[in-house]
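Q: Could you write out the predicted structure for this multi-component system? I'm mainly interested in how the pieces pack against one another.
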Amino acid sequence: MSTDEPIPPASAPAPESAIDPRAARWVGLFMIVLVAGGFAAFRMFGRSVPPAPAEVAGDPILSRGRDVFLGRCAVCHGNEGRGDGPLAPTIANPPVGNLTDDEWKHGDRPDQVAAVIAKGVAGTRMEGWGRTLDPDDLRAVTAYVDHLAGRTAPAELRKSGR
Ligand code: HEC
């Protein structure tokens, strides 16, 4: 190598980054907003159910009834029975009623409530659960509906094996 040859640069100049750093910041921000939005939507629409209150958790028939209710009925009737489940806005003529008020369209006697739950209401979206639920689940969810309406579940619902 002769001395009058130009000395090659120690390394090639760093190539210009293809990504504009300002654009990168916006993309980063966008992704944060997307993740936060997804999380918020999950909190709003996800089935996050608070733990059962003590009087329910401590009563086997009510806690069983609550499990059945949350699994089968809350989609229309709402977690607390107020008629505000995720499907409720799509149901009209008749709409999903509020199970926690004093108005019982099909009667307020425990046997009438039990009959509606078991047989349903013809011509409405309230189907009968007598074939789907086993008798203990049926009794438990009936007791739980009584509880949601602020009543004490009648003693006959507590008998099992019928
Ligand atoms: C697909 C939606 C839907 C589901 C699921 C559903 N219901 Fe209903 N339910 C209704 C609608 C609509 C009515 C109103 C019927 C009417 O007005 O005659 C109703 C009425 C009732 C009533 C009568 C209220 C009254 O005022 O007399 C009771 C009790 C009841 N449902 C309990 C339950 C229970 C317990 C379950 C779960 C095992 C359940 N429902 C599941 C839609 C639903």
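A: Regarding packing and overall arrangement: The chain has two domains: 18-48, 54-158.
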